[in-house]
Design goal:
Order of helices and strands: EHEEHEHHEHHEHHEEHHHEHEEH
Number of strands: 11
Number of helices: 13
Strand content: 5-15%
Helix content: 25-40%
Largest sheet: 6 strands, parallel
Shape: elongated
Radius of gyration: 24 Å
Distance between the termini: 36 Å
Strand order of the largest sheet: 3-2-1-4-5-6
Oligomer: single chain
Length: about 400
C-alpha cells in the first residue's frame, strides 16, 4: 500500500478548494467528517477545539477525521471566547457548527453575529433533527434519526430486528455529505452574488432524501414496505450475502440476466438458473446457493469468481480491505505517519488531493493560524489553560 509522504506545505495548498477558508467549531460525528472532506479537497480548515477536547476518548493523534486541518483552542464561555471565533469568521468563507438549535446564538457565534462581521460567510449547521420541528431541541444519535425516516426499517432479515449500519447511513451519508453539498452550493452563490447564507443540514432530511428511488418504487408497486422482500434488500436470492465453509461471507449482486448466468455457471447450478424468473422458486434457489457456498472457503470462492462478470465479491473486514489487489492498485487506502486510512475521494485530474498532514492536535495550529489569517494577537493566558466549558450534545 503506498505511503503518503509528510510534507511541509501549508494546509489548503492542494486540491480544488485551495484558498477556501473554513472554521469548524469542534463537535463529534458528522460535523468533523464534513470538515475533513473539505480539508481533503484543499480547504484551509481551522478547527476551534474546546479546552479538554470533545470527550470522545479517542487519542487525538489517531483521529483521522482531523487530518489536513489546523487547531486552535478557544473557550466560548470565556469573556473573549466569542470575539476570537468572530475574528476567524470575519476572515473565513465557511463556518461549520453542530450545536443544538439556539446554542450558537446563546454563545454569541450564531449566524447573525457572524454575518454582521462577514456578510459573505456560508454558515453550515449540522444537526440530527434540523433547526425547527417538535424534536429540534431533543438529544439524538444516528440510529434514532434513521429510524424515523424509514431507512433503518428497510435493513435486515425478515423476522429479525433491523440491522444497524454502524453510523454510516445517518451521520455520514445523510449528514456530512449533504452538509458539504449544501456548503459548496452556497459558496458558489456567495461568490456569484456576494451574499452568504445559512445551510440547515439535518440528518433526517438527508437520510430521507437518500431513499428517493425506493419511494418511487414503493409508489409504483415494485417495492414492498417490509424487510427482506425486495430486489435490493436481501429478499432476492441473487442479491445478498452467503456464508462460506470457514464462517466468512461472499456478497452476490448478479441482477442482470447475463451476470446471473455467469454466476450460476461458476457456482455449478445452471440447472436451477430458470428459477430466477419464478419468485415461487426463490426459496429453493436460495437454499441451493447457500448450500453450495458452504462447500468452500471464502478465499476459494474468491478465486472462482476472480476475473468474471458474476458480480460476486468477498466480504472483507476493515483490516483486510486495504490489502485487496484492486484497492491497493488504486491507492484507495493510504498510510500516513503509521496510520492506515481511506485516501481522499473523489479524484481530480487537474487539482489532485492528498493526505497532507496527520490529525491536528488541539491547539497545535495557534501560531500558524494567527500568522496566516492575520488575526489580532490577544494578551492573556494560553488558551489551553482556560477552564473546560460545559459539554453539549453536538447534534
Amino acid at each position: 500500500m503506498p505511503e503518503a509522504k509528510t510534507t511541509t506545505r501549508e494546509p489548503g495548498a492542494d486540491g480544488p478548494l485551495s484558498g477556501v477558508r473554513v472554521v469548524e467549531l469542534a463537535g463529534i460525528g458528522p460535523g468533523p467528517f464534513a470538515a475533513m472532506l473539505l480539508a481533503d479537497l484543499g480547504a484551509d480548515v481551522v478547527r476551534v477545539d474546546r479546552p479538554g477536547g470533545p470527550g470522545l476518548g479517542i487519542d487525538p493523534a489517531r483521529d483521522v477525521t482531523n487530518r489536513n486541518k489546523r487547531s486552535v483552542v478557544v473557550d466560548l464561555k470565556a469573556p473573549d471566547g466569542p470575539a476570537r471565533v468572530l475574528d476567524l469568521a470575519e476572515r473565513a468563507d465557511v463556518l461549520i457548527e453542530g450545536y443544538r438549535p439556539g446554542v450558537a446564538e446563546r454563545l454569541g457565534v450564531g449566524p447573525g453575529d457572524c454575518h454582521a462581521r462577514n456578510p459573505r460567510l456560508v454558515y453550515g449547521r449540522m444537526t440530527g433533527w434540523g433547526q425547527e420541528g417538535p424534536l429540534a431541541r431533543r438529544a439524538g444519535h444516528d440510529i434514532g434519526y434513521i429510524a424515523l425516516t424509514g431507512t433503518l426499517g428497510m435493513i435486515g432479515a425478515p423476522g429479525e430486528p433491523p440491522a444497524v449500519p454502524a453510523n454510516l447511513l445517518g451521520d455520514y451519508a445523510g449528514g456530512s455529505l449533504y452538509l458539504v453539498v449544501g456548503i459548496l452550493a452556497a459558496l458558489h452563490h456567495a461568490r456569484a452574488n456576494g451574499t452568504g447564507q445559512v445551510v440547515d443540514a439535518a440528518i433526517v432530511d438527508g437520510t430521507a432524501h437518500l431513499s428517493a428511488m425506493i419511494h418511487g418504487m414503493l409508489a409504483a408497486g415494485s417495492w414492498q414496505d417490509r424487510r427482506g422482500a425486495n430486489l435490493l434488500d436481501g429478499g432476492c436470492p441473487f442479491y445478498g450475502t452467503y456464508e462460506t465453509a470457514d464462517g466468512r461471507h461472499m456478497a452476490v449482486g448478479a441482477l442482470e440476466p447475463r451476470f446471473y448466468a455467469e454466476f450460476m455457471r461458476l457456482l455449478g447450478l445452471t440447472d436451477l438458473a430458470p428459477a430466477r424468473d419464478d419468485m415461487t422458486r426463490w426459496p429453493e434457489l436460495r437454499a441451493a446457493v447457500a448450500a453450495r457456498f458452504k462447500t468452500r472457503t471464502r478465499d476459494e470462492w474468491t478465486a472462482v469468481f476472480t476475473d468474471s462478470d458474476a458480480c460476486t465479491a468477498p466480504v472483507l473486514s476493515l483490516r483486510e480491505a486495504p490489502h485487496h489487489p484492486h484497492l491497493a492498485a488504486r491507492s484507495t487506502f493510504t498510510d500516513h505517519d503509521g496510520l492506515t486510512q481511506p485516501a481522499p475521494a473523489p479524484r481530480f485530474s487537474a487539482t489532485p488531493t492528498a493526505v497532507r498532514t496527520g490529525p491536528a492536535l488541539p491547539g497545535d495550529g495557534a501560531e500558524s493560524v494567527t500568522r496566516d489569517w492575520d488575526l489580532p494577537r490577544e494578551p492573556g493566558p494560553s488558551p489551553a489553560s482556560l477552564p473546560n466549558p460545559a459539554v453539549h450534545n453536538p447534534q
